Amino acid sequence: MLHIGTETGSRTTAKTPAATGATAPTEHHGTAPCDLVTVPARQGLEAVDILRRGSDQEPVGPVLHDGACDTLGFLVPPGTAEAWDVPGSACTRTDGRGLRIPAEPPVTGSGWLLPPEDDTPVTDPAVLRAALDQAARLIEAADNCR
To answer: What CA–CA distance (Å, rounded) separates 31 from 9?
Structure first.
């Protein structure tokens, strides 16, 4: 699981950076601080597809994957963690300061599924919530067809 920042309640699995092997970003790709929404990889990949197909909507921002490809992490605006309540996901804040988007993945053993770009902001949390809900419905429907 991707871990950044500190615990923000029972909805998260975040730990301190020292406990997770996270490295403190020294080079910032962008200047926008952000929180991190983590979801199971299957739902996250469906959500990425949904967000990318809706190209006339808000763009999908940078997305991390953990080394085992068990989870995906969507970078979202700071403050999102305070109101995030999507079942099956967690939103981590970074000590109230927000993570700055680094050029390299901020967690040891992770990588970019969608790397940060100068013209791509973080993902809008309302748009992400809708995509995750749609992804969960698609997965449930597919699983019920077996």
So the answer is: 27
CA–CA dist 32, 141 (Å, integer): 37
Phi and psi torsions of 59, nearest 5°: -70, 155
3-state SS, the chain, equals CCCCCCCCCCCCCCCCHHHHCCCCCCCEEEEEEEEEEEEEHHHHHHHHHHHHHCCCCCCCCCEEECCCCCEEEEEECCCHHHCCCCCCCEEECCCCCCEEEECCCCCCCCEEEECCCCCCCCCCHHHHHHHHHHHHHHHHHHHHCC
Residues β-bridged to residue 92 = 36
| Cβ proximity of 98 and 34 under 8 Å | yes
Consecutive 10-residue averages of pLDDT for the chain (146 residues): 42 32 39 85 96 79 89 92 93 69 73 85 93 95 86
